[in-house]
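Hello Y.,

Per our agreement to keep a running log of every chain we model this quarter, I'm adding this entry. I've kept the format consistent with earlier entries: sequence first, then predicted structure.
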Amino acid sequence: MNQTTPAPADTATAALVSTPVAGPARLRHRHRGLILSIIILILLPLLLTALYLFGLARDQYASVTGFTIRQEETGSASDLMGGLAQVFAGSAPGHADLLFEYVQSQEIVERIDARFGVLAHYAADWPADPLYTLWPGATIEDLVWFWGRMVKLTYDKSSGLMLVEVRARDPESAQEIARLIVAESEEMINRLNETARRDTTRNAEADLQAALTRLRAAREAVAEFRVRTRIVDPQADIQGRMGVLNTLQQQLAEALIDNDLLLQTSDAQDPRVRQAQRLIDVVRNRIDEERRIFAEQNVTVDQTDYPRLIAQYEGLLVDQGFAETTYQAALMALDAARSNASRQSLYLASFIQPTLAQRAAYPERFILIGITAFFLILFWSVLALVYYSLRDRG
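Predicted structure for the entry above:
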């Protein structure tokens, strides 16, 4: 039998007819699972968040205040005379650090709670709004923690400026709490001033007393030296002895001149020549004796020589002069401390008075819903990728 070979066009048509055609897309179980997961993991939590924020969360009003610590720069007259302004100058940035920590401390929370009732205010909406209120039986530690949520601080260390934002259930309460924060901060600065003034004055008085004791001891040492040596002023005594020596030298010169004149008119056997020679010898012996007294020991009541006596006296005078200078400096320091104690060197300067809000600024509902939606979608995407990765590997 004869077999006919099919043409190329017929082969292509037969292959096309034999290829199955894709059917319409259908919803499978995994697709239903993804939709269900979107509803459960994204839409339902987002809906609950929106219901809570718009239905249960209470409005919060914010009051803003700003202050810094200023230091008095004008010095007193005693400071200008003695150059002591830098000694008593404080460090305003360092005190600003203390104030920043104080506004967040338990002490200020207790003080404001005693004056305003912070716990009762923030627990008024419990348990209707559990996220933005505090439970009534909260301890002081819980109140301090919640205070950190309701009171936000912004502090610039370079300039020392501090901004405080206070949140409360109504505008008046927020403004009142902000005013109390400023008042308690001023009281803390006043306590720092009082402590600094008290310490400075006490230290200055102690330094003055020590300087006075040292001056008395130096003067008593000088007086004891004069009593022991029976010399009021060794320098004056030496000057007197030097005057005697100068007088003797002058007499010696005159005696030598007279002796030369006699030798020119008389012989050596003349009694006047012998008398002049004896005078010369006596004056020379006296000059040598005076010079020996200056160098030899045991010539004074103190059993010492004049050079050492002068050295001791000058040492005592140096100690006395240093004690007098120290006493004068301590006296000026005490005057400066008392002058500074009469005025406030540190004070709180408010550059923004506590504001009164006209609308609720918190909670930021739309921002919170947007953040919640972002993290829910991110969480769902991670789970979906993990699911498909495991499915493909299986």
